[in-house]
Design a protein that fits this description.
Blueprint: E1 8-12, H1 26-30, E2 35-37, H2 57-70, E3 76-81, H3 84-94, E4 99-105, H4 116-119, H5 123-131, E5 138-139, H6 157-166, E6 170-171, H7 172-176, E7 191-196, E8 220-224, H8 230-233, H9 235-242
Parallel strand pairs: 1-2, 1-3, 3-4, 4-7, 7-8
Antiparallel strand pairs: 5-6
Helix pairs in contact: 2-3
């Protein structure tokens, strides 16, 4: 049980990653007195053996909704990184009564009926690369680039070794399946956005955040001067921002 001053966080990783991506953030939230869940989505981490062509966005939304029901979690600060923004949006549409706040961490922020391809068109490149392979449904992680881009913005050798050991393939269906956002109750949920602006090339488009949230309050947007995987590169800074939400 949470205390009146404590919060309950559910941290949702992005494509190719696993729940371990949050390993440096979780203890920082716990030591401040909060409960934290950081599940691995189907096909990733300890569930990597479940990856198959039928795994998609709906699978991952069901993963998180199932966790909320199984653990009877409510007043949840639901955090999504990257593709995880698609997942938390779908979760909020299904169980808005359980969500205290949504936090999009350098994440896709879809509209109703959009897929990851709509929210982040650059993902089309990855599907095109896989199309000529023997398993076109299977999408490997992004290739590592020279610094300062690195691998998801990670460049430190030790961090890179840890990250590489964590990554696994995802599916085309995750990027192609549209999210359903037709529940008007989701509009009342406060939301915040964290943008990682340290190594993002200037020609990579970022969908602008409206000045006003759906609930009518001003939008909350924070910039972090680091690469995309901020939970690995700057866990303390990210945890400090998460503690301000919910």
């Amino acid at each position: 049980m949470t205390t009146p001053k404590s919060k309950l966080y559910v941290l949702v990783h992005g494509a190719w990653h696993s729940g371990r991506a949050w390993d440096r953030v979780v203890p920082l939230l716990i030591q401040d007195g909060h409960r934290v869940f950081a599940p691995s989505l189907t096909g990733h981490g300890e569930k990597a053996h479940l990856l198959g062509p039928d795994v998609g966005l709906d699978t991952h939304v069901a993963d998180v909704v199932g966790l909320l029901h199984e653990e009877d979690l409510s007043d949840v600060v639901l955090v999504g990184h990257s593709y995880g923004g698609m997942v938390i949006s779908g979760v909020a549409n299904q169980v808005p009564e359980r969500i205290a706040a949504l936090v999009y961490v350098d994440a896709m922020v879809p509209e109703d009926g959009e897929s990851a391809l709509d929210a982040a068109p650059l993902t089309r490149y990855l599907l095109d690369l896989a199309a000529g392979s023997d398993t076109p449904w299977r999408i490997p992680p992004l290739p590592e680039q020279p610094a300062p881009v690195g691998l998801f913005g990670v460049t430190d050798p030790d961090d890179l070794a840890w990250l590489r050991a964590m990554l696994s393939d995802t599916t085309a269906r995750c990027f192609q399946q549209p999210v359903q956002l037709d529940n008007p109750a989701t509009g009342a949920i406060p939301r915040a956005h964290v943008h990682c602006v340290g190594t993002t090339p200037e020609d990579v488009p970022r969908r602008p955040v409206p000045q006003t949230q759906p609930n009518g309050t001003p939008s909350q947007v924070w910039d972090m001067r680091c690469g995309h995987d901020c939970m690995i590169i700057a866990p303390k800074e990210l945890a400090d921002l998460l503690l301000q939400t919910g």
